[in-house]
Design brief:
Blueprint (H helix, E strand, L loop, with lengths): L1 H5 L4 H5 L12 H5 L7 H18 L17 H4 L4 H14 L3 H17 L7 H9 L11
Length: 143
């Protein structure tokens, strides 16, 4: 049933969704684990800091306030990746059959992940995380 429903969602529609993840039930063992997760306050601080970074970064671009709004023509000015990152992205594009739109969105999400990590550069791990957020593109969702 899930596969039948998912087959009705068009590729171009999925391409427009930046973050696609499957949420599975959390096992009881993990729910009952007494270890502490990151506090909401510290998460909020990271998000506010990242948004402030983005606002400052795009001051010269009217109407652009965050990474999601970067025009495609300016993408490579703000989302520079090294050779290892380019290799990873190329491999993901080929293996997953991703579109040019997905490429842009992966770069924008990886820029946001780097901002949340307080990193000036987009590192390979930021790209890998952004690629992993494209789970519906992989065609394995719901299996």
């Amino acid at each position: 049933m899930v596969q039948k429903y998912l087959s009705k969602i068009s590729g171009p529609l999925l391409d427009r969704i930046d973050i696609q993840i499957e949420v599975v039930p959390v096992p009881f063992k993990e729910l009952a684990d007494a270890s502490r997760a990151e506090h909401s306050e510290s998460i909020r601080e990271r998000v506010v800091r990242a948004r402030d970074l983005q606002t400052e970064r795009y001051l010269a671009l009217p109407g652009v306030y965050c990474n999601a709004q970067i025009p495609s023509k300016k993408l490579h000015d703000f989302c520079k990746i090294n050779d290892a990152g380019m290799t990873l992205l190329k491999t993901a594009m080929e293996r997953l059959g991703l579109s040019a739109r997905a490429y842009d969105r992966i770069l924008k999400v990886s820029r946001t992940i780097a901002d949340l990590d307080n990193s000036i550069d987009i590192r390979v791990e930021h790209l890998a995380e952004a690629i992993n957020y494209r789970s519906l593109d992989k065609g394995t969702w719901g299996q």
